[in-house]
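In practice, a research group might receive sequence data for several interacting partners and want a quick structural hypothesis before committing to experiments. The following worked case mirrors that situation: the sequences arrive first, and a predicted assembly follows.
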Amino acid sequence: MGKSKNGGSDASDKQQPAPLTSDSKTADRSFAAYPVPSKLAASSSTPYQRNSWLTSVDGPAMAVLTVLCAVTRLYQIGKRATVTWDESHFGKFGAYYLNRTFYHDVHPPLAKMLIGFSEFLAGHNGTFNFKGDYPSYVNYKFMRMFTAMFGIGLAPLAYLTCLQLNMSRKMCTLAALFVILDNGLCVMSRFILLDEPLLFFTAASLCSIAGFQNSRHKAFSCAWWRWLLLTGASLGCVSSSKWVGFLAVALVGLYTIEELFNMYTEFVPVKTVAKHFIARVVGLIAVPLVIYLACFKIHFTVLNKTGPGDATMPPAFQARLRGSPLSSQPFEIMYGSELNLRSMHPGSGLLHSHPHKYPEGSQQQQITCYGHKDSNNNFVLVKPAGQEFNYTAEPLVAVRDGDIVRLQHKQTKAMLHSHRAHKAPITTRDFEVTAYGKPQWKDPNNDWRIEIVKEESTVQDKNLHTITTQFRLRHAKIGCLLTAAAVKLPSWGFRQTEVSCSPANNLNAPASLWVVEKHINKRVPSVDMRPRVRSSFLRDFVRLNIEMARSNNALVPDHDKYNHLESGPITWPFLVYPMRMLGSWKKGDIKYYEIGNPVLWWSSTLACLLFPLQLAYYAARRMRGCSDWASPEEELHFWNVSKLLWGGWALHYLPFFLMGRVTYIHHYLPALYFALLFLAFQIDQFSKRWFGGKLATGIQFVWALVAVSVFYWFAPLTFGIYRWLPTWNIYKDPFAL
Amino acid sequence: MVVASYVRLWRLSNPGNVVFDEVHFGKFAGKYINGTYFFDVHPPLAKMMFAAAGKIAGYDGVFDFKSIGLDYAAAGVPYVGMRLMPALLGLAMVPITYITLAALGHAADACALGALVIAFENALLTQSRLILLDSALIFFTGLTIMFWALFFTEAHRPFSNRWWTYLLLTGANLGNALSCKWVGLFLVATIGIWTLKDLWEKLGDLSISPVQYTKHFVARAIGLIIVPVTVYLFWFQVHFMALHKSGDGNAFMSPEFQNSLDGVTLGHTPRDIYYGARIRIRHDATNAGYLHSHLSNYETGSKQQQITLYGFRDDNNYWTITRTEADEEKFQNSSDPTALQQIKDGDIVRLMHWRTHRRLHSHDERPPVTTNDYQNEVSGYGWEGFKGDSNDHWRVQILEGDSSVPESKTKLMAIYSKFRLVHVNQRCALFSNRKKLPKWGHEQVEVTCMKSAKFPKTLWRIETNQNERTPVNAPLAEYTRPGLIAKVLEATRVMWRVNNGLTKSHPYESRPTTWPWMRRGMAFWGSGDRGIYLMGTPILWWTSFVAIVAFAVIQAVLFLRDCRGMHDRLLGVRERYFESVGFLAIGWVLHWIPFFLMGRQLFLHHYLPALWLAVCAMIGSLDLFTRRMSRKVRQVLMAVLLLLVVRMYFQYSHIAYGTPWTRQGCERSKWLGSWDYDCKRYMDLDVKPAPPVPTVAAPNLGDPIAVTIASAPAKNPEDPPAAENVDLLEHENKLNEPAPHIDQDRLNSNADRLNEEMKKASPPSLRLPVVSLAEQAEALAKKLAA
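A structural hypothesis for the assembly, expressed as tokens:
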């Protein structure tokens, strides 16, 4: 917490701000007035502008809170020596960084790399695949403790944040207590998961933006820059942990827009506004972006061996992975070669056929695109019918741009075929593509023209090459282009991708571009592909992000099926469907139950739901010329705190309603963090406004006591002893048949 | 007005064929006249207006508007009368525009200009000449905006008679617009936002006391909430009264709803279900029909007999509900083996298909369509005399009962009990999700057994209960008759669901982004050397869009300057500009932006209400910004605009009215390459007159699209298939239509044979009387009378 101390000394320098008019002509000076009304600038001792905010009390207070939090998070952390909850995913992903094989997941890499780092520290060699019980050589306790540290960090961060928001120390303590005493946050901090880093970086973003807000009167000072850069760094980390982190980015973005706009309306000179703007571009856009990119750079650098995630990336990337079958292949494609063709459209896959017919249209054999690699993806490139050619004896002939060729499916011997007579099953503006006919038939509907679009290797000889040549396949008779645009076929097509022949002639659409991913020809010597394929970090980065988004969107639930893990966002704040964190729920098992502290959840929800009404009430009162505030500073303080806390809650909660993918109750935890802090603030507001004095303190104390006892009541989450709502499936699942 | 009448009514009889969506709306008018219930995705008012117009003109409801291109004259349909209705409504837009602009505080010359350009606007013109709903929608939208503007002219005399009149008329027309198409909701939003703004400003006006403020609030709540809702309900009431007979729309609705139509008698069946009863089971959530089986097998999985949902009542929907084998034995050995035993919650039962003697069966096989691993296939298995196996066992789990008969929660009762059938071995529940089986399944709806299913789609109800041993005075069960509100809610729900399902692509659909600059029109109809293509007057579309953008930019600049303490007066018209053009621009935004959120297919004509608002905004801006200019300049500007509009009206009138044109004129008029009306159909001036175009339609090919194509001289694949509802309802109708009939005779004869055999073989306690349906109904009627 060294930074905080510095912040304190900075602040004390400004103990006696000079009156506005007498300031010298520095850039800072003109901005010193913003946004505190000029009355306020003269007296620094108002309770809403704490100048020296870290006193001797705060250090010990934070230490005590941290210890308390650590006790709740670490108590019996290793009790269940079995892979628990999503440890099976994230522990495994962490291990990939140790054995350096390339994998695919929907989340950005930072948090998983941290887990990998903890596994490295714990001495794991990357061989355990996180299924079943932990073997003796895996120090799972250390790994859990490592991620739990992020969870523990929430408590001092909450205290510090409230301090930065100029709440009283009592309230800071209460807020931190709420964070410590929430069973939901607690149980999610006890395993090897991404949630702890996510929560920690979210809290860090909030803390640093609050600090930034608090230092707004010292623009461009050291403390100001430090908070700005810390905000940027936290935002970079949070969005590199999970994409939910972009919601924190949105919060800071909106805050910044409001701040700049206020400056504009406060008559700050345009030049100064521009300086502020540029500083924020650097701190809040450039810094996070660099961190996000750096995480992916490390990800690509560490994971340099072939692994389970290969197939999601383009062949040029795969060929560069060590041990990949694609890295050593024949380069020059000849007639008679056996090829796997990949569509350049993300998510389409490899050209595929299988002995199943279309149920409609021509009812000929299906042609699809399929992500998995198997022998049904092999097509032999042959000459058009009538051109006799002995592919095993005659000298090899290279395939050139403009050649007319046929593609024969290796397993079924049928030819890649299209015809005008039938429309494609889903994309009805295109023609159907089938596998049809015998090699000796002179059917012009089997002929395709090769049109080379781009050659990425240095060999620019207009010949077709493995991986490096992007080309189109144009139907020689109809003139349409072979297209696979990641459109899924129904169950008769095994939900593989539809392949059609598009007459639209979109020359550069990736869906109509193909590359040879794998090339088999015994007569052509294999060469090392790695120096021939082009590598571009940015291209891989963009592609991987697209694939992550695609996998993420594919996680769509069946709305008719009851799944005891899933719950809709509308149910979260009311804690309707807590979640069993184990698959088996038998008597005698050690069980973990993701249930929050109901009192805290319900009261924080109430506080958040009341806020819009509160705002409307104050606005309407103001329209009628009534004021509810003792001073403009009090009102400003109310707005400054609630916009960050309530805004953070709303931004971390409401977007889930728009998401099509499956949602779980722990998706609410970041929003809950904001809600808990906001709850402390609202308790403060209400008790002061209505009761004041000792009674207010009493209420706050009672609240803390209730939170403690409820936490204690639910503390044996592992055993589950009571339920308050009939939908809590601790004992019996109401939907079980 | 004279000019406008001429422009709008000229050659209304052309073309004398069914054009575009007249297919639907003409047909619906006929249904009103016949009184048979139908289903459509739009609320009823506009359609009822067509029905009224048709009735007055003498349409008898016989002609069925089956496909685009059918000849009206030949069928003796008074289509001119029917088209006159929207044309007159379109005509009324001319004075409405004038009054609206005047009420918004614009000068008389600007109002006249606005009225004239609206009269000459080609898209509004084309749309209002055909039997389409949009004309009525635009008319009511215009009326609402007009009365709302007039309401504000009375703002200084609140609660006066006129003030009330305008407020209530606004509300009534809001209700009317909403009863034409749900696009009226955007109008509700427009008026709502402006009301909130107005009330907010009044809140700041300290001269208004709290009591007075409450009066203002209540008045608006009455005028703008209660009145529109009442009007909406009123039109639905008229709709339900007009459509009192059962018709092809039945299948969309719940049995309760159907029960309120003439000619439908659902229910009226003995209430208590005893073992041995012959029952018909309806799937509760989807209205897709009854649990059904027939003598065809699955082509996948177990290849056993199919179990489906079927929407129509036939004998293949009958199931006999019996005990399990062990229970039956126990029962036979009990003291009174002939006693009637009622089925209770938790009982384990077996269901035997009455015709084919297969038992409802499930096992660890994947269903044909829904192949998820938590779904099991449901089949009919067994043969006559087969004792059955444990995979035929289903547990009855009653989840909901009827509040009027509390026992229906514990004892199985026809109609009242909503229950699940839980397969005992597989622990899955009988389920259906409106998925259709392939051709071999006769395109009926798939039934599966789903593990961990949520409740709604696993709920079933017994609709028919036949048992010869039912005591004479046994209580009967019947569906409740829903009240108006329940009916409207249900109709609204179904409309919403079907509306959202309209996602198929259509050759002339367009996304909202392309509307303001009119990237592409829509071909409505084409035949010979004439064609109708919906396209606006380009200059009006473009300038009106520019006017809106200009408003937004000017307001933004003014706001930013205000923030820095620079308060512009904007030639002294700033307040008026915001109150008038601002209102119209917000209306425009609310009639345009929400379309972006819609996943369903959209068409250019959805933009027309927004276009009218935009044109008014444009004329308003023109008026305000030319006030300080000299009279002459102002008049010249206005004249130029009018001349341009009229010039373009003439240029594009050929495709609006469907009159012959020349190929050169047509080609010249294509300013954007994406305007894809067909110029090849027109006569080429450079070429000698072509041989006479065949005017007789080619033989009907059975396909509505094919008919239009066949009658065009050159084969033109771009001719539109009937838009909107065809595609939309196709899916739904197919679901509800009698699925292509399987060889019922064969099945029935087979079943009859089996039935005979069963009668001979089955033990007396299980034997069922083969009472014909008519007899049964008669008996029931007698019972009822008693």
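Before designing any experiment, note the following. Chain B touches chain A at residues 200, 203-204, 206, 369-372, 374, 422, 427-429, 431, 433, 438, 450-454, 456-457, 505, 560, 563-565 (CB under 8 Å). The CA atoms of residues 528 and 712 of chain B lie 5 Å apart.
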